[in-house]
Amino acid sequence: MTARIIDFLNTRRPEGPCLVVDLEVVRENYLNFAHALPDTRIFYAVKANPAPEVLKLLASLGSSFDCASVAEIDMALAAGASPDRISYGNTIKKERDIAAAFERGIRLYSVDCEVEVEKVARAAPGARVFCRILCDGAGAEWPLSRKFGCEPEMAVGVLEHAHRLGLRAYGVSFHVGSQQGNVEAWDGALASAAEIFRTLAERGIQLSMVNLGGGFPTRYLKDIPGVESYGSAIDGALKRHFGNRIPETIIEPGRGMVGNAGIIKSEVVLISKKSEQDQVRWVYLDIGKFGGLAETMDESIRYPIRTIHDGDDRAPCILAGPTCDSADVLYEKTPYELPVTLSIGDEVLIEGTGAYTTTYSAVAFNGFQPLASYVI
């Protein structure tokens, strides 16, 4: 929570739930990444928060951009990024979208199977491709599924196929899971990447780049290692597995870049119990899963919550959103401790919400408007 955000909320008094993002925090985060990983290019994951002000700031600082769609590519270009600073990082792309990206000058694409390689070869001839591999997401609070990536052994064939079709087999990528708390999580994936490099080199194909992905955390309820710890661990793993032939590296921070830069202001709509004997209150906010807090699914991300009564006695609460959908319950398996004096109409501040909130609030479900956003 920053003094600038508190001053904005006290001065502007915006109506309804809203996200407020402090650009000074984003700037500090970018500079910390650049310092911790000085030989690595930063490709900000646009999907985390595509606010134009955020993208323009990062572009001015020298950031590159990881984009998941043509629309995100256009956002990055509009923010001032040149095409050579943009990666089309989604492994699932329509061929016509690849062609549209190619027309815009994009020459770097992610793949994870031979069929996707063939689409890129037809729509973006001569482009560079990197193959995403599966890896263990142990230690992540928001583990990624097997939806993206292939087994490392398969990646060799995928990149060979790209080479045969006239594409540049450029490198390997992976993602160790979002909100990764283990600084050593990159080690195993880098070992797999190094083996792919060696195998392809024996076959006359020289790879150049390892995309280290995202996974860098922001602080929620638990303390997290500093970005310097991640940089040091990654540097050690690179030297361990690649020796003196360190490849070009890039990272794709999203949550770690903007998560702690934002706070959501919410309001208590209702406090109730389900029976006279209930010891746990239900606290309903004017924002829920469908209003931007989708990452509370399975209670994976547990946000810090602040109220004006924080010095008072606390009791466990089940926290839920306002919509007419039974899935719109934020925290029930592990109730939240909130002040017993909390009342209907009280404002609640939800910290660490700068990433993956406005982007998950894209449709006015039940008529509740998408999450308003202010960037200061």
TrEMBL record:
Substrates-to-products reaction catalysed: L-ornithine + H(+) = putrescine + CO2
Keyword field contains Lyase: yes
Orn/DAP/Arg decarboxylase 2 N-terminal domain residues: 26-258
Active site: 324
Gene Ontology biological-process entries: putrescine biosynthetic process from arginine, via ornithine
Pfam families found in the cross-reference section: Orn_Arg_deC_N
Family annotation (PANTHER family): ARGININE/DIAMINOPIMELATE/ORNITHINE DECARBOXYLASE (PTHR11482), ORNITHINE DECARBOXYLASE 1-RELATED (PTHR11482:SF6)
Protein name per the record: ornithine decarboxylase
